[in-house]
Amino acid sequence: QVHLVESGGGMVQPGGSLRLSCAASGFTDFPFSSYAMNWYRQAPGREREFVAAITRAGDNTLYADSAKGRFTISRDNANNMMYLQMNSLKFEDTAVYYCNAVRDSRGSWGQGTQVTVSS
């Protein structure tokens, strides 16, 4: 059973930065490096939305338009970690951010970490 734990959320002023981490464990059948990884977010009253994705080897990334140029997704397969560096944060980035691991069309989710952008 894949277990994902997000951390690094908090309150930040507009224009500030945060780095989210996702610690992954429970890889009994397949290694972390065999999972595509994603970040999603959910703002109050809204649907959960895609933020960024990274391939298994970390050699390709994909971003939502809202994240392009400001967010950077990365992973460390040696340590079963994934990250989301968020710069130039805006009020509309306020949400709970979720880590997602996908393999063979099956996904696992973390519990989320709250990011609040407020002045």
Describe the structure.
By secondary structure, the protein is mainly β. It is built from no helices and 11 strands. The chain has strands at 3-7, 10-12, 18-25, 36-42, 49-54, 61-63, 71-76, 81-86, 95-103, 106-109, 113-117. The strands form 2 sheets. Strands 2, 4, 5, 6, 9, 10 and 11 form a 7-stranded mixed sheet that branches. Strand 7 (71-76) and strand 8 form a beta hairpin. It is globular, with a radius of gyration of 14 Å. It starts with a strand and ends with a strand. The mean pLDDT is 97.
Q: What summary fits the major beta sheet? A: 7 strands, mixed
Strand content: over 45%
Provide the succession of SSEs.
Answer: EEEEEEEEEEE
pLDDT < 50 runs, ≥5 residues: none
| Count of β-strands | 11
Structural class: mainly beta
Distance separating the two termini: 40 Å
Radius of gyration: 14 Å
The tally of helices reads: 0
Helix content: under 10%
Task: Describe the global form.
Answer: globular
Average pLDDT level: 97
How would you summarize what this structure contains?
The protein is an all-beta fold. The chain is 0% helix and 52% strand.
Name a few traits of the molecule:
119 residues, mainly beta, seven-stranded mixed beta sheet, four-stranded antiparallel beta sheet, 52% strand, globular
Secondary structure blueprint with pairings:
Layout: E1 3-7, E2 10-12, E3 18-25, E4 36-42, E5 49-54, E6 61-63, E7 71-76, E8 81-86, E9 95-103, E10 106-109, E11 113-117
Parallel strand pairs: 2-11
Antiparallel strand pairs: 1-3, 3-8, 4-5, 4-9, 5-6, 7-8, 9-10, 9-11
